[in-house]
Amino acid sequence: MKAKEGLALLNGTQFSLSYASFICSSAYKIFHVYNEIAALSMEAFACSVSPFDPLIHQIRPHEGQVLTAKRIYNLLYGSSLRNLHL
User: Fold this and answer.
1) Whole-number Å distance between alpha carbons of 81 and 84
2) At what angle do helices 3-11 and 13-44 cross, to 10 degrees?
3) For residue 9, pLDDT beyond 70
4) Which domain range does residue 70 map to?
C-alpha cells in the first residue's frame, strides 16, 4: 500500500464512522464501570447513600443524573450503608 492509499483510507467516511462507533461502544462500557467504582468507593468509605435516593432526583430530572443515581443506588441494594446515615 502506498502512502496516499493509506491516507485515503484514514480520510474516508467509512473509517470515521467505524472509529466513532468504537468510541461510543467504549464510552458506554466505561460509563457502567464508573458507576460500579463509585458504588465500591462509597462502600469502602462508608458514605451516605441518601444523595442517590430517587426521590431527590425527581426535583430536577436530568436524564443522565437520574440514571446514574438510580444505578448507584441499586448497586448498593442490601448494603449496610442504606441505614447507616439516617
Assistant:
1) 5
2) 60
3) no
4) 3-84
* Whether the predicted pLDDT of 34 surpasses 80: yes
Cell numbers found for residue 56:
431527590
pTM: predicted TM-score of the whole model, two decimal places = 0.67
Quickly list H helices, the chain: 3-11, 13-44, 63-75, 81-84
**Angle subtended by helix axes 13-44 and 63-75, to nearest 10:** 50
Question: What is the rounded (10 degree) CA torsion for 55, 56, 59, 63?
Answer: -90
Residue with cell 436524564: 63
Query: pLDDT tens-digit profile of 40-60?
Result: 999 899 888 889 988 999 999
Q: How many domains are there within the chain?
A: 1
